[in-house]
Amino acid sequence: MDTNWNDSLPIYRQLRDRVVAMILEGVLNDGDPLPSVRSVAAEYRLNPLTVLKGYQQLVDEQLVEKRRGRGMFVTEGARRALMKDERQHFLEEEWPKIAGRIQRLGFEPKELLDALDKIPPAPASSLKRDEEPGEGEDRE
Amino acid sequence: MSDDLIVARNLGKAFGTTRALNGVSFRVGRGRIVGLIGPNGAGKTTALKALLGLTRFDGELAVLGLDPYRQRHRLMQDVCFIADVAVLPRWIRVRQLIDFVAATHPRFRREVCEHFLARSDIKQGSRVKELSKGMVTQLHLALVMAIDARLLVLDEPTLGLDILMRKQFYETLLNEYFDEQRTILVTTHQVEEIEHILTDLLFIDRGRIVLDATMDDVQEKYAQVAVRPEHLAVARTHRPIGERQGLGRTHMLFHGANRADLERLGEVGVPSVADLFVAVIQGARA
């Protein structure tokens, strides 16, 4: 993770987004502990309350759970839930735009599948240990 | 006792005809990290001196429930302070200095001080005059952070430190010093290096408080918009408090404007403390 914050969103929100990205990328797996508020605050020179607010947002979204006296942990099934949202987002928001562009450029499905074979597979971390049916089928 | 560590009401201080503090009122709560920010000569140091009982003042002031000027001795047991002009006797050895503070301050934790020093290049046998400017500052910080105080006052704490030492200083402060029982009041001109650490902002200019807000307030009520050229006229009807030119965009700062209205003008973001400072000070002087 780099330490550059952008000014379009509050920091706590960007922190939340980073943890989400780490869960999606498999850097953090279900049941893994989140780094302590204190260590994140020190490392990024943030107020501990800001870090806590970002973590609280994840708790509210049920992606992270507090365990009394032990800190914050990624909820079982968090990645699956996020993946579901991401997939839905892709199908509803991104795919229509991409599909429109494919149509405008007049591609046939076969041309695209052939081109896909030449693309190196995505890094293992981004899709590793995925038991969700149908994931990764676009690369087979 | 309430959670307010500092309660200042209508503080005043004049040097001859110059009013260094002019009706200054504010409160600081427990567990907060407050940035007292102002241009040179705004009254920052005078305000800090009043809080620490180093100068007389008009008005009411309670720090940890005490009158700083009359009860300074008791106050100092729970307060520690680093001045921007950190002076240590040049002839003294580091070890002697630690012995001195250990003997004079009841809340000084020698092992904590030695732990901080062990991470620097400072040797206990060295004399202050043999240390570099940055090392003297580090030594000062190690001495002060080793005091188990409830209120830490930092006046330009990282002046003279290089970028690596600055980063390390704030890391140490957050990781090993600060907790919800402690309160920090900090002044600095390097606002960008502390803006994400702060919970509260106090802007002071010409002896008056011109902004008193939590960082949450700032994020909610102030917005910076990169206004596209075609929307300039409309944007100005929303009465921006600050305006500066960027690449193909005019960055405007708004206070209390409707978010949806702003979204139509251009990209909306959170203003930096530096941008907010410039806008508020200019507004206060206009």
Keywords:
heterodimer, A: mainly alpha, Arc Repressor Mutant, subunit A, two-stranded antiparallel ribbon, 54% helix, elongated, B: Rossmann fold, 2 domains, six-stranded mixed beta sheet, 13 strands, 33% helix
Would you write up a description of this structure?
The complex is a heterodimer of chains A (140) and B (286). Chain A has 140 residues and is mostly helical. Helices cover 54% and strands 6% of the residues of chain A. Chain A contains six helices and two strands. Chain A starts with 10 loop residues before the first helix and ends in a 13-residue tail after the last helix. Chain B has 286 residues and is α/β, with parallel strands linked by helices. Chain B has helices at 44-51, 72-75, 94-104, 110-118, 133-145, 163-177, 191-194, 215-221, 232-237, 259-263, 273-285, and strands at residues 4-15, 18-29, 33-37, 58-63, 79-82, 151-155, 183-187, 200-205, 208-214, 222-227, 242-245, 250-255, 266-269. In chain B, helix 6 links the parallel strand 6 (151-155) and strand 7 (183-187). In chain B, helix 4 (110-118) runs antiparallel to helix 5 (133-145) and helix 5 packs parallel to helix 6. The two termini of chain B are 40 Å apart. The mean pLDDT of chain B is 90. Chain A binds chain B through residues 5-11, 38-39, 41-50, and chain B through 33, 167, 170-172, 174-175, 178, 180, 193-194, 196-199, 215, 219, 224, 267-272.
Please summarize what this structure is.
The complex is a heterodimer of chains A (140) and B (286). With 140 residues, chain A is mainly α. Chain A has six helices and two strands; from the N terminus they run αααββααα.
What is the molecular shape of chain A?
A: elongated
**In terms of structural class, how would the helical and strand content of chain A be classed?**
mainly alpha
Q: What's the overall geometry of chain B?
A: globular
Q: H/E series of chain B, N to C?
A: EEEHEHEHHHEHEHEEHEHEEHEH
Total beta strand runs of chain A: 2
User: Radius of gyration of chain A, rounded?
Assistant: 18 Å
Characterize the largest beta sheet of chain A: strand count, sense, and whether it forms a barrel: 2 strands, antiparallel
Q: Uncertain segments of chain A of ≥5 residues (pLDDT<50)?
A: 125-140
What's the level 1 CATH class of chain A? Mainly Alpha
Continuous helix count of chain A? 6
Question: What is the CATH T-level topology of the largest domain in chain B?
Answer: Rossmann fold
